[in-house]
Amino acid sequence: MHDAATGSVTFFTDHYVNVRGTQADEAITAQLRETGLVTIDGLPNRHQVLAFATRLMGITSHPHSAPDGLTLIRDTGSHAHRAGFAGLSSGELQAHTERSGTPEPPRLMLLVCLRPTATGGDVLLADGRHVYDRLVKSCREAAIALARPRTASFGAGAGAGAGHTTQVITAHAGGRISLRLRQDGLARWSPVIQPYLPHLRGAIANSQHRITLQAGQGYLLDNHRWLHARTSFSGDRQLLRALGEPHFSLPEGFAPHSSAGPPSLKGARQGRHHSFVSTTAINERSTT
């Protein structure tokens, strides 16, 4: 479990909550409200992962999930190079949020390692608050452009109207912000924001923390705030994923640092006439 910036083990331990503690659920709830991320251990099998997930969320189904709502994430051997299926291959998985191509993406994602691999498969996590702050500092125009409505389309289909038309950055009441993103062959972009995509990718790369999950370890995150990615790997790496809605109140997104502030709503409104979405993806790597 290594912090990509410092090479230390502090990132996992700084966000760790003992799920067997007497006040575990209260501690998890408080931490999700504050930082949007909890790291955990002690969940070595499907039964325990499911029991933990149902304590905290109402599980929502996924096209690849089993009847209990959990999805086994592994290299199936048949999904490599298929747009939208990188999670079921051994290839690199670009930073993304879950179910970005749906009108209402699930709020929580739980991912637990059942079987690690000796080579690769590291998790890369980026706090959207840090991504946004870095984006504003490096190029405020990029943050404004990426908040313009209907400038991205995420999901399956062909043509400019395919998938769910949305934007990467969404501003909410009270100055809070949420993110949604995918970076594979099912992502299409308005020409007006394509010049700013390198700034977004740079902000993400500079915000990522690397952890290596062992059996029974995992994390629970706010899917409207945190971006997750994975390095390529070899071997029979297996994880279980649950998506769902929290059993507790959770403020939408995150509050940016005061120096960053929310994106200019005036700038966002001015971008409405740029809502035509290009069918050109920013890369050909796939995500789930």
Question: What does it look like?
Answer:
The structure is a single chain. The chain is α+β, with helices and mostly antiparallel strands. Helix content is 21%, strand content 24%. The protein contains seven helices and 17 strands. The strands form five sheets. Strands 1, 2, 3, 5, 14 and 17 form a six-stranded antiparallel β-sheet that branches. Helix 4 (128-138) crosses helix 6 (197-205). The longest helix is centred in the N-terminal third of the chain and has 11 residues, at 24-34. It starts with 9 loop residues before the first helix and ends in an 18-residue tail after the last helix.
In brief:
With 288 residues, the chain is α+β, with helices and mostly antiparallel strands. It has helices at residues 10-14, 24-34, 46-56, 128-138, 140-146, 197-205, 265-270; strands spanning 37-40, 57-60, 71-73, 93-96, 108-115, 119-120, 123-127, 152-154, 164-166, 169-171, 177-179, 187-189, 208-211, 218-222, 226-230, 233-234, 238-246. Residues 1-8, 267-273 and 279-288 have low confidence and may be disordered.
Give the overall form: globular
Residue runs with pLDDT of under 50 for 5 or more positions = 1-8, 267-273, 279-288
Q: State the total count of DSSP E strands.
A: 17
The termini sit apart by 24 Å
Secondary-structure element pattern, one letter each: HHEHEEEEEEHHEEEEEHEEEEEH
Which class of secondary structure composition applies to the elements? alpha+beta
Beta-strand content estimate: 15-25%
